[in-house]
Amino acid sequence: MxxxxxxxxxxxxxxxxxxxxxxxxxxxxxxxxxxxxGRGFGFIEMSDPTEAExxxxxxxxxxxxxxxxxxxxxxxxxxxxRGGRSGGGGGGGGxxxx
Length: 98
Fold this sequence. Notes:
Alpha-Beta Plaits, 4-stranded antiparallel sheet, two-stranded antiparallel sheet, 2 helices, 6 strands
């Protein structure tokens, strides 16, 4: 049986991967807990999809360290444009000091 991964958002920057694992462990076996430092979010993977769904239902919208948790299915990373010019362009029009 394959585990289930969840996105956990709106974390305080001081929250660690260990804190996240501790938060989710009462719901079942945590395979991996990873906080993305300085970004305010992380991911949790649990061994049983049913347990992960229960954790999501019970913890989403609750307070954790003074912040309201946002727990959802993870989305694939956005692809970044490669090659050529992407966005931006031009510029100018601002105050210039000579």
